[in-house]
Amino acid sequence: MSSQYQITAIGHIRSPYKQKFAIPRQPRLVSAARADLIFTDEFNREEFVRGIEEFSHLWLLFRFHETADKGYSPLVRPPRLGGNARKGVFATRATFRPNAIGMSAVELLGVNYQHGQLSLRLGGIDLLDGTPILDIKPYLPYSDAMMDASAGFADTRPHTQMSVSFSEQAQSVIDNSDPALVLEQFITQVLQQDPRPAYKKSQAGVQHYGMTLYDFNIRWQVNGEHNHVLEICPL
Predict the structure, then answer these.
(1) Contact of 95 with 68, CB cutoff 8 Å
(2) Residue 146, phi-psi category: left (phi > 0), alpha (psi -120 to 50), beta (remainder)
(3) Predicted confidence band at 200 (pLDDT cuts at 50, 70, 90)?
(4) For 146-181, what is each residue's pLDDT tens digit?
(5) What is the reported pTM?
(6) Fewer CB atoms inside 10 Å of the end CB: C or N, the chain?
(7) What is the C-alpha to C-alpha distance for residues 106 and 144, in angstroms, rounded to an integer?
(8) 195 in helix, strand or coil?
(9) What is the rounded CA–CA span in Å between residue 183 and residue 215?
């Protein structure tokens, strides 16, 4: 029996997350995130998605394309445990996996076919821009949602009490941005997830950070349990 298989990507993600920093640890933690799945030429036909709009959510199987060439390790350090404790890679959702395959349950917001290009509009996405999509499957609540399941060290939803405010300049950019981006809600939800490295969260004093979301460079500072967005600059 062969131990090697060839897999062809069916499309890629056009995502607001342009870098790994600030991507939520799991899908749907940032519900305001919007993205598009753009189909490749081979699968760029409406027949492939006929009936898909009947489902509210989808499973995406994808490849961790930015870390795939870095190999894998049998033991990893889950951020949920502060980056110190080690767990077996198959007991986590870490990116450094033998086949670099990930999965996400996301919301289906719409099916578009414009100018000869098929795409899916998605919500609650947690994927890096350009992520190759390997397959799509409908999410089935009666089968996929097991309410009595246990989840070990990740048994509860990540939650922070961090508040978020915006400078006058940042608020002005938000007020003049495309309403479809729900930019204020999106940035707020990202920062409430506290994307800082685990070792930084226990350090005192004001900390400054930057990230790129959509086509904006965003600078903010963290002081205790408060995030203040200093500046939002279009790229």
Answers:
(1) no
(2) beta
(3) confident
(4) 888 888 877 777 767 789 999 999 999 999 999 989
(5) 0.89
(6) N
(7) 13
(8) coil
(9) 11
